[in-house]
Amino acid sequence: MNKNSPLAHVLSLFGDNQTRLAEALSKVAPEYNLKPVSQPRLWHWIQKDLVPAEYCGLFEIVTNGKVRRYDLRPDLFPRPANAKTLKERIA
User: Fold this and answer.
1) Residues of the domain holding 41
2) Residue 39 CB contacts under 8 Å (≥ 6 apart), including other chains
3) What is residue 8's predicted lDDT score, i.e. its pLDDT?
4) Cα–Cα distance, 14 to 24 (Å, whole number)
5) Number of domains in the chain
């Protein structure tokens, strides 16, 4: 995983603790008809540095909007023209 990636930033918000992040994602997943996120599944996403599109919104929720879906998957969710990049928001 690229240490400057949005996913790395999400993980840092959870003290670099994959289990804590997986638990937070799993708590909200059922509300959106998604399967809970196990730590091994999260590890796989981290290794690939790629979050499945359907889970990007959960990351936005558990980070209270600090990391947006367009940060995680710019290939699928275009950044609004007036939105700052993640680097600009955390600077």
Assistant:
1) 6-90
2) 18, 19, 22
3) 93
4) 9
5) 1
